[in-house]
Amino acid sequence: MAVDLRLRELSRKEDLFTHGHRMCSGCGAPILVKMVLLATDYPVIACSATGCLEVSSCISTYTAWKIPWIHSAFENAAATISGVETMYRLYKKKGMINKEIKFVAFCGDGGTYDIGLQSLSGAAERGHDMLYVCYDNGAYMNTGIQRSSATPLGANTTTCPAGSVIPGKQQERKNLTRIMAAHGIPYTAQASISNWLDLMKKVRKAHSIKGPKFMNILSPCNRGWRSRTDDAILLSRLAVDTCYWPLYEVENGITRVTFKPKEKKPIVDFLKPQGRFGHLFSPENEWIIKKLQEDVDKEWERLLRESSQQ
Questions:
Q1: What are the structural domains, with CATH classification, of the chain?
Q2: Predicted local distance difference test score (pLDDT) of residue 128
């Protein structure tokens, strides 16, 4: 089901994730949830793993969700929504349901990269017709800004604090988008709230494809990133323009870069506004910035090469 993605038409649609939630001021997660839900006219059933989005969007008997929504445990959101999708297919086969319904999981990086990876991998292998959306803020923000495998090299978190012993996180971040594409699922994509049309087109495309789909969407967290409360879009844009967070999709094994910055900016432009990287600008830690730049350049060149070969 196509949806008009012009701003004027989108502004007339009903918000299915409403105001009144308890997400922090300036959080990227509610922005991306609204965009994902606005991108389709299909009825949607959603599930969220335990995390910032879950605890802040459903308080006691009050909820910001205007669609059927399920709170699942930290580790099994993909299993929960795939079970609902299986029940739907059974009901449809029996003639008890005749309308087309879409199934979406919204989970943070802790419940996706780490704790819930086995559940997500299993749902992908079984071939469930569902879209899994990871809102990636780069740490376990809900429980105290602990590092996750999505946390970038050198970032200062409560479990890898920057100091005289270690200069922040010592490991490189996991490239989960590539890992999910390696499952051979029909559609995998990376998106950003700064590039809203690219994001919404990818959601619409995902819903048009049968089988498991995965989208990784950058979700700035001013509390954990130590940034301004009004910088979510700015930081998302800098992540894209520095190619720290490249926008691309892998459809049926074919890679396509969906946005190329007119002028690729240095990674320091993305790092400087974030207090979690402040220590990297000390002389003894400059090697980390150099390493981050090398990794970004290498991945960007790989994506451009694979995209040009298609």
A1: 7-308 (3.40.50.970)
A2: 98
